Amino acid sequence: xxxxxxxxxxxxxxxxxxxxxxxxxxxxxxxxxxxxxxxxxxxxxxxxxxxxxxxxxxxxxxxxxxxxxxxxxxxxxxxxxxxxxxxxxxxxxxxxxxxxxxxxxxxxxxxxxxxxxxxxxxxxxxxxxxxxxxxxxxxxxxxxxxxxxxxxxxxxxxxxxxxxxxxxxxxxxxxxxxxxxxxxxxxxxxxxxxxxxxxxxxxxxxxxxxxxxxxxxxxxxxxxxxxxxxxxxxxxxxxxxxxxxxxxxxxxxxxxxxxxxxxxxxxxxxxxxxx
Length: 275
Fold this sequence. Notes:
Layout: H1 2-23, E1 27-30, E2 33-36, H2 42-55, H3 65-70, H4 76-88, E3 92-93, E4 98-99, E5 102-105, H5 117-122, E6 127-129, E7 135-138, H6 140-143, H7 177-194, H8 207-212, H9 215-220, H10 222-233
Parallel strand pairs: 2-5, 5-7
Antiparallel strand pairs: 1-2, 3-4, 6-7
């Protein structure tokens, strides 16, 4: 019986590999993740992915000031399950499909992923999740080694203001490949772990806003997880403790206005570019 079950698993896995390879001959595996259409960047993307997955277990430490700042009130069991799913690269599954998680490089306006070219290049987006699929699109900004650091460094840790209500120059700690990749992987896996959807429209990015969200909103905002793991990776230890509360999102006074408190290009992103 075990042999029969194993045979079925291998056959299904082989089907996924053959299916992916037929559409994307430029395909390699990294654990259970597929990396497609990355050409000479494939090995570098695989290294970034494996370093990211190796670092994630550090993030499952709830008794830290970083957890209190970004995920206070969020069920730690579910946070652990989310990061575990990402680390293992479990299949992306819904009622229709079960597919291996995939990282795809957008290398030009004529590539297979050309529908995202305007979002990546004109809006300056680093990466985005192809909604309702197993695929994360990596834009040129992401895989260009001269654009982003791989991991946040201690000198990237933000400085708390005198009022203890926020950071003085926010958002420095997350502008790296590790944090951006985790953000997109949270989107990919969130619904499978929490059985609800993460924020996809006008999601808050500014670190002070993210810290001020009430627990129900922190739970569904991918950037709270990205900030959390970034601060853990950079060994940041100082966080404001009197952050103004953000009880609703978007703010009731401006429901259709995206947040513009940061100049980071990824503020301009949208999660719903579909081919």
